[in-house]
Amino acid sequence: MAAETAPRATGRIERARQIEARKLARRSFLRVSAFAGLTLFTGSLLASFLGFFNLRRPTGFGGTVTVTADRIPRPGADPVRIPEGKFWLVNLNGPEGDVLQVGGTGGLLALYWKCPHLGCTVPWNPAFNGAQVNFPGIIGWFRCPCHGSTYSKAGVRVYGPAPRSMDTMRLTVNADGSVNVNTGQITSGSSENPLREVPYA
Ligand code: FES
């Protein structure tokens, strides 16, 4: 009799152990799931925060836009429109564009295309004759379609209701001939825009 009782007791103990082990496994699974969920939630919160405050080093407008060498105009050529950065890239040939003669010696300028008057996008008009704004002999101007503000190739205002010249963006030249334009670093335009030209060999 005693010999039959002993295996039954051992079986009960073994079953109890298995039940306890299953409970422990379930508890640790729940703990790991909760931790993973919390990590995901925190990650998505952080991503939203960075996106909202624009801290992820944006590369379009608002951040740095790189223009490869093949897109950079030759000295004296028409300005090139850079839509991803909302600016015109201009390569001035010597004193070109320095219509008020402040001492421009040529080079690159990134001109923000937003008109300083009421914000219209300013196009380059390669056929516009400066004679219409008292600068005869100069063909090709930035001319705002909204109220006629007119700017030289260096963005210098010569005519119209705009309160100042076109604004410029910080531009640096890279070793491979490309340029970086920081579209988040904008300086108010002035008649001295030509003094901001960056030499480009
Ligand atoms: S918005 Fe350009 S002149 Fe008025």
TrEMBL record:
SUPFAM superfamilies: ISP domain. Coiled coil: none annotated. The chain crosses the membrane at residues 32-53. Pfam families: Rieske (PF00355). Residues 182-201 are annotated as: Disordered. Keywords: 2Fe-2S, Disulfide bond, Iron, Iron-sulfur, Membrane, Metal-binding, Transmembrane, Transmembrane helix. Residues 182-193 have a biased composition (Polar residues). Residues 74-180 form the Rieske domain. PANTHER family: CYTOCHROME B-C1 COMPLEX SUBUNIT RIESKE, MITOCHONDRIAL (PTHR10134). This is Ubiquinol-cytochrome c reductase iron-sulfur subunit. The lineage of its organism: Bacteria, Bacillati, Chloroflexota, Tepidiformia, Tepidiformales.
